[in-house]
Amino acid sequence: MDWEYWGTGPAGYGAALLYCHSLLVRETAEKVRDVFADVLDTPTGYVAQLSAAAHILGRAYRVDDYAELQYPVREHAHRLLAEVERS
């Protein structure tokens, strides 16, 4: 478990939140992905990324944050879910 944000989250949540927040800048997202691949490319990392995506998308819906970021995050979440379904 990570003690990130407010309370506990799945292991890798900090890296997942950083990755999701970087999706608007491709080069930065690639760098974050490379640095944290050992965490993000695991089943727990997928859960962490989906949790981070849910956080961002929830705020986009509830308080109109992340006007631009919500689109690449939603696409990323769909890709992750498809990956999990194939596994």
Shape, per Cα inertia axes: globular
Uncertain runs are: none
The rounded Rg comes to 12 Å
User: Would you tell me the overall average pLDDT?
Assistant: 92
What sequence of helices (H) and strands (E) makes up the elements?
HHHHH
Class from helix and strand fractions: mainly alpha
Question: How would you describe this structure to a colleague?
Answer:
The protein has 87 residues and is mainly α. It has one domain. It is 69% helix and 0% strand. It is built from five helices and no strands. Helix 1 (13-21) crosses helix 4 (43-62). The longest helix has 20 residues, at 43-62. It is globular and about 30 Å long. The mean pLDDT is 92.
List keywords for this structure.
single chain; 87 residues; mainly alpha
Write the layout of secondary structure elements.
Blueprint: H1 13-21, H2 26-35, H3 37-40, H4 43-62, H5 70-86
Compact summary:
Helices cover 69% and strands 0% of the residues. It has 87 residues and is mainly α. The protein has one domain.
